[in-house]
Design a protein that fits this description.
With about 140 residues, the chain is of the alpha+beta class. Helices cover about 40% and strands about 35% of the residues. The chain starts with a helix and ends in a 7-residue tail after the last strand.
Length: about 140
């Protein structure tokens, strides 16, 4: 009886500690992705944003390149071709090693923009994979 009670108590302590560690890591992952996004996409600083990427960064968007250099190339494209673009993070969701952003992206101030869902996978605190889904936001008809 004492053994069962002791064993149950230890299991509870370890599960609470593991949950706290998971919650803490999710918060770290969330902040990593937000900082990466703000630095790379909005400030258009690919060099500084690269520190958030893992060695083997896989880009699942078929129009984008894999790797740190692929991301830097994308940021350089933004600087050259879409210097006024901006992405406003609307919501952030975390699930284990995944961070999901709901974003409104605009090319120019005042345009209706695009709704974006970005999904990031992290390992050891670094972004190692990225997926996205992009949809134009229709202009609202005025009566």
């Amino acid at each position: 009886m004492k053994f069962n009670l002791l064993f149950s108590g230890l299991l509870l302590i370890f599960s609470v500690a593991a949950h706290a560690e998971t919650q803490s890591q999710q918060q770290i992952n969330k902040q990593t992705v937000i900082d990466f996004y703000q630095t790379g996409i909005n400030q258009k600083d690919g060099e500084s944003a690269a520190k958030y990427l893992g060695k083997n960064y896989v880009q699942h968007n078929p129009n984008a390149q894999d790797g740190v250099d692929g991301f830097k190339n994308y940021v350089n494209y933004l600087k050259t071709n879409q210097p006024q673009s901006h992405s406003e993070i609307k919501q952030v969701f975390t699930d284990g090693d995944y961070v999901i952003l709901h974003v409104k992206s605009t090319l120019l101030p005042g345009d209706s923009g695009q709704a974006v869902i970005d999904i990031f996978k992290l390992e050891d605190g670094k972004i190692v994979e990225h997926w996205d889904v992009i949809q134009s936001i229709p202009q609202v008809c005025q009566p």
